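Subject — a protein and its fold
Fields — amino acid sequence, structure tokens
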Amino acid sequence: MRSPEGFEISVATNHFGHFLLSRLLLDDLKRANQPTGRIVTLGTVTANPEEFGGKVPIPAPADLGNLQGLEAGFRDSVAMIDGKPFKPGKAYKDSKLCNMVISRELHRRYHAETGIVFNTLYPGCVADSALFRDTPKAFQTIFPWFQKNITKGYVTQELAGERVAQVVIDPAFAQSGVHWSWGNRQQAGRAAFAQPLSAKAENEVRASRLWDLSERFVGIA
């Protein structure tokens, strides 16, 4: 599936859409001159190879390669950021990895100048949300059970919402350039912590190039 602009839909929605919205919000936050401005983006454990969920090889771990697909124009037959054959599950993971990379790049470019806080978070696996509405009915039944009883990664929609709200407004989350997590396996009463990202996600040269290409694709270069 493609966006009206011709881009693979998960990358168009999760990465290009988030990137453009962040850039537009950034201008508003800078003009507001508020010391508590924040731009917070949902990441995911499946896009971070530093966590167990990010090592799962089905369909493949998140990997942006050298952005070959974007460099090639990301239209027509090109549907993956790394330019390789299309895998829908990996396309989703890659798009979420982009979210975390760009949040770090926003921090590097703008935090010192503006004081705006740029963070991502993984609130836990909301396995019974509408995110999985297009999956087979059997999956919609089995997956929440699996996350509750086997991986222990399940969180309710209410708890996930509370965690997002914490990162957005709680003074305890005012540190910029952080990926907040409550762990791959949920523990009652566990505090959030700064989860490291992979070396590939922290690569500043690749992040800068992803930024430049993304500007071109959303029309603000």
In short: The longest helix spans residues 88-114. The two ends are 26 Å apart (CA to CA).
